[in-house]
Write a structure and sequence with these properties.
Elements (H helix, E strand, L loop, with lengths): L1 H32 L6 H22 L15 H35 L5 E3 L2 E2 L1 H4 L1 H17 L18
Antiparallel strand pairs: 1-2
Helix pairs in contact: 1-2, 2-5, 3-5
């Protein structure tokens, strides 16, 4: 698992660095030399998609995704476990549905007669493969996380003593 974490983190870092370099290059080339790289903007759009999806996958991995834990502070440990299974199960179901429908969209793009392109001559469906893959992996991670202890546990509200 640690090697997968390192690969994900490394890939995210490379994608963000590439985005920064491309965006900075475009700004400098446009402002100072009245030119630019023709394929940079479409590539950056695809890199934003990939970075966003891989970032979301990493957030689920580390339990740093958006969550409302106000209710958790009022629940007993057993009720917390049940709430965790229900909420993470729901999140897994949503991600699984998104994986399915993004696969359907990808299949439409793959089989379409127009064969739209993401940039240059690359078919649009190739960079879109990140969508079903990332949503599918997020669904799997939510299912696995539902049955493991939380990365951080909010304190019980009634166990917090008065301020001194």
């Amino acid at each position: 698992m640690e090697i997968l974490r390192r690969i994900e983190d490394w890939l995210l870092a490379v994608l963000v660095l590439l985005l920064v370099v491309l965006a900075g290059s475009q700004i400098i080339l446009r402002d100072f030399f009245a030119t630019g790289i023709s394929w940079a903007d479409p590539l950056m759009r695809q890199l934003v998609l990939w970075t966003g999806m891989l970032g979301a996958l990493a957030a689920v991995r580390d339990e740093k995704h958006i969550a409302l834990d106000v209710l958790q502070r009022f629940l007993s440990p057993l009720a917390r476990k049940i709430a965790r299974i229900v909420t993470f199960g729901f999140a897994a179901a949503i991600c699984a549905a998104l994986a399915w429908y993004s696969y359907v969209m990808l299949n439409v793009d793959y089989t379409s007669a127009t064969q739209s392109s993401a940039f240059e001559s690359l078919p649009a469906w190739i960079p879109e493969t990140v969508l079903p893959a990332a949503f599918g992996l997020m669904a799997l991670r939510f299912v696995l996380r539902a049955f493991t202890p939380p990365a951080h546990t909010p304190p019980l509200l009634h166990s917090v003593g008065p301020a001194s």
